[in-house]
Write a structure and sequence with these properties.
The chain is α/β, with parallel strands linked by helices. About 30% of the residues lie in helices and about 10% in strands. It has nine helices and six strands, in the order αααβααβααβαββαβ. The strands form two sheets. It has a four-stranded parallel β-sheet. Helix 4 (about 105-120) packs across helix 5 (about 120-140) and helix 5 crosses helix 7. The structure holds zinc ion (2 copies).
Length: about 270
Amino acid sequence: MILCSHVESILFPRSCACCNISLFCPEDSRPLEKRDRYGRSCSGRPSYKGFLCSRCASSIRLLISPLCSVCGEPFKTPAGSDHICGRCLKNPPGYDTARSIFAYEDTIQTLIHRIKYQAQGYPLKALARLAKPYVSEIVEGMEQLDLICPVPVHASRLRQRGFNQASALAYEIFDRNAWWICPDILIKNRRTPPQVELSRQERLRNVKGSFGVKDPSLIRRKNVLLFDDVFTTGATVSECARTLKKNGAGRVFVVTIARAWIKGDRHPVNLDNS
Ligand SMILES: [Zn+2]
Ligand SMILES: [Zn+2]
C-alpha cells in the first residue's frame, strides 16, 4: 500500500494548490498544527497532506470565538465570550446568523482567486477539503435546515465565467447529490458594479433590490442556508436574506469560506503564546 502511494507520487507528482511546488519531499509529510486567528495552536490536526505545502498551510488562520453571535465578526481581543456587536444592535442584518471559516488572506485568498478568476479545479478541491470539517461543524450546530442557496451571480457574469464559485464550492463541500443544494431558486436580476472599492453604505445601496426568488412556494417557511465564498461587509448576503424572507422563507443562516474583516487589523501572531 505504502509502496503503491510512493510509486503513484513519482508517476503523478502532486504540487501545492497554492504555490505549485512539488509535494514530493519529506518536509511535507509532517502533520501540521492547526492555528487560530491569533497564531495560537489549537487542538486537532486537519489534514493538508497531498494538496498544500507546509509553508502555505501554516499561514491559514481560523476565525474562532469570541465573535459576534449574529454577524460572526471576530472581536479584536481573544478575551471574553460571544455576544452581539454594536453594529448588529444598531442595524440588524437581514440574516439570522453568519459564520465564516478562515481569514481572507495569503493562502486562502490565493486559492479563492484561482477558483474565481482562473477557473482552476485543483484549488477548488483543495479549498473544499480544507473547509469541509469546519463547515460541517457549523451546520450541525444550526437549527433544522431545509435547503442551501449558493449566492447567485448575474446570468451575464455566469456566461462570462462559466460557473458560479459559490455553487461549485457548495457541491464540493456538501454531498454532491444532495437535493437540498438549490442554485436556481435565488437569482440575481440586475448586474451590479463590483463591490471591491465601495464603502459599507455604498455596497448596501449597490445590491439593494438586485436579487429575486424564482418560485417562492419552494422556500415558504423553509430554513435556508446561504452559502458564499467571501464575506466582506455582509451587504450581499444581507440583501439575499431579505429577499428570501420577503418571499416567505423562515430563518436564513449564512456560511462563507472566508472573511475579509482582518485586513490591516492583524494581531501579532505571538499575542497569546505564553
Ligand atoms: Zn505552497
Ligand atoms: Zn455583529
